[in-house]
Amino acid sequence: MNYAFMKRLSDYSAMAESAIRNLDLSSDKFDALYSPVAYGMQAGGKRLRPTLLLMTADAFGNCPDKAIDPAVGIEMFHNFTLLHDDVMDKSDTRRGRPTVHSKWDENTAILSGDTMLTLATKKIAEVEDAILRPVLDTFNDQALRVYEGQRLDMDFENMTEVDLDSYIEMIKLKTGALLGASAKIGALIGGASLEDAEKMYEFGMMLGMAFQIEDDYLDTFGNADTFGKPIGGDINNNKKTFLLVKAIATAGSNAEALKAAMKMPAGATKVKTVTRIYETMGMPSVSKAEVAAYSSKALAAIKKTSLSDERREAFRKLIDKLINRSK
Amino acid sequence: MNYAFMKRLSDYSAMAESAIRNLDLSSDKFDALYSPVAYGMQAGGKRLRPTLLLMTADAFGNCPDKAIDPAVGIEMFHNFTLLHDDVMDKSDTRRGRPTVHSKWDENTAILSGDTMLTLATKKIAEVEDAILRPVLDTFNDQALRVYEGQRLDMDFENMTEVDLDSYIEMIKLKTGALLGASAKIGALIGGASLEDAEKMYEFGMMLGMAFQIEDDYLDTFGNADTFGKPIGGDINNNKKTFLLVKAIATAGSNAEALKAAMKMPAGATKVKTVTRIYETMGMPSVSKAEVAAYSSKALAAIKKTSLSDERREAFRKLIDKLINRSK
């Protein structure tokens, strides 16, 4: 099959979605092990990570087809982390469906999650021998970063205050590293030089941070109809998001009101109260500025690669799409 | 460093133990993530899997030194499975120490377990480029077999009867595959042909099955002073061990008594009653015969390799040691 270079963003995500839908995880004997894996993969979502991996392989080597197995692998890794995170957070639903541990049970979620991690590693390894080692190293190292980020995030729950540097470190690890690795692995498959592959890692990392801060913003200021989960969940959980951490750091005369609001029981009144404080403090524009700053850094990383202007365009569009999204 | 060929068994296990002791898992920032990993690795035990990996590398290539990182990796994988199994089984102690989830908490056990799996994969990949792919494939495939075996074992808990074939399938997957992979990876590192490496997989698999059936035997008929855990735990949990599955399949006139004993509440009387039924049925010798049969198969696999008689000797000694052990 021949793929034309520079497909539209939606073509890459459709390609990822189709490969994921065609995954054969059926098993006569071990259905109880592999069904939850298939269920975890069918969660839908933006398929951002495999899309980024495919488009990077195409930008450097006109070869998204060679990248399809690793693209599925990177999404499988992502879904593995969601599956285990949901157990740790005791979340009963995700994207409107019961989570694996609530549909089956916790032991199934642990074991089928482990299975997903190994299956993901196998998919990632579906590359030419010449790049197996750098691809595998990139994948394993990002995995450790993700666990470190999740560990920090868990530790934050028991802290009343988190400083901004720690928050930034956490999202770098928990969200940035996987997007960085997606872009880097795509670049390696596309035949990019190691220098270009590192620049693409930087791109993915900065994109990931813009993406996460936008996600934090949408959880409070998004549109309930399109966001896909109830607005204000982070506020109700006193979750250390960019909004909260930044607001605490710069609260000034709003400090007492914010502290009092955090102590309120979860509910619509709490969400309204905290949202109003954020608005008074101008947090929406502070947040948007932060997203724009990371987007600029992402763009700067792309400009340092050897990619032509024409080939950079798809990445610029991806940034635009992610920071102007409603879900 | 130069290693002489055909070291004593105890030299290989000491080599593994020392490499594990020297693992640097300290982390200033992520101590909460990596300390439980270090704790999980310090559990001691026989270090059977890395010992087998090292001795196979030495038998084929006089190079246990080249195999040391993968040997640590295979033990780390094993300890990762124990860590997650302990969460699933809600076991509070292992080898006389609190388990990770009881010393820390369940979320820590899940996340640090995931970390161990990725760290294990990294260690396994510390081989020459030329054999990276077969070594990685062998490792990942055995991992899937282990999860399948654990899934079966969990399913057995909800079944009143398990047939012997299913039990054999379960231990093949849960115990055999990892020992098979340990031997095969050692052989690949030692430069063995693919044929010889496959024979070594067969050896490890058969050794693992002999080992597991012996383990089941010792849980009932072992010596409490040397076995390291209370005798009769399997009986108290109605665990589907070789003894129980085989006894149910061949109970004849003892069927009613066995069924009644299984319904007794856990305690010394139950252990005594079931043990007596096993003795009446001659289960100790039936069990020993089964161990001997798998040991013979292991020996037969070794004889099919190109190894000299002299080099086979260490493997024969390993079999002898494992089936005549008290712990």
Molecular structure report:
The structure is a homodimer of 327-residue chains. Chain A has 327 residues and is an all-alpha fold. The first copy, chain A, has two domains: 1-126, Orthogonal Bundle (Farnesyl Diphosphate Synthase); 132-327, Farnesyl Diphosphate Synthase (Orthogonal Bundle). Chain A is built from 16 helices and two strands. A two-stranded antiparallel ribbon of chain A has the order 1-2. In chain A, helix 4 runs antiparallel to helix 6 (106-124), helix 4 (68-89) runs antiparallel to helix 8 and helix 13 packs antiparallel against helix 14 (268-280). The longest helix of chain A is centred in the middle third of the chain and has 29 residues, at 129-157. The mean pLDDT of chain A is 94.
| Domain unit count of chain A | 2
Specify which chain pair forms the largest interface.
A-B, 34 and 34 residues
CATH architecture of the largest domain in chain A: Orthogonal Bundle
Could you tell me the CATH topology label of the largest domain in chain A: Farnesyl Diphosphate Synthase
Treating each run of at least 4 consecutive H or I residues as one helix, how many helices of chain A? 16
Computed over alpha carbons, the radius of gyration of chain A is 20 Å
Strand and helix order of chain A: HHHHEEHHHHHHHHHHHH
Principal-axes geometry of chain A comes out as globular
Largest sheet of chain A: 2 strands, antiparallel
Uncertain stretches of chain A: none
Counting copies of identical and different chains, the oligomeric state is: homodimer
What value does the average pLDDT of chain A take? 94
- Which class best fits the helix and strand makeup of chain A? mainly alpha
- The top level CATH class name of the largest domain in chain A: Mainly Alpha
Let me know the CATH homologous superfamily of the largest domain in chain A: Farnesyl Diphosphate Synthase
N- to C-terminal distance of chain A: 33 Å
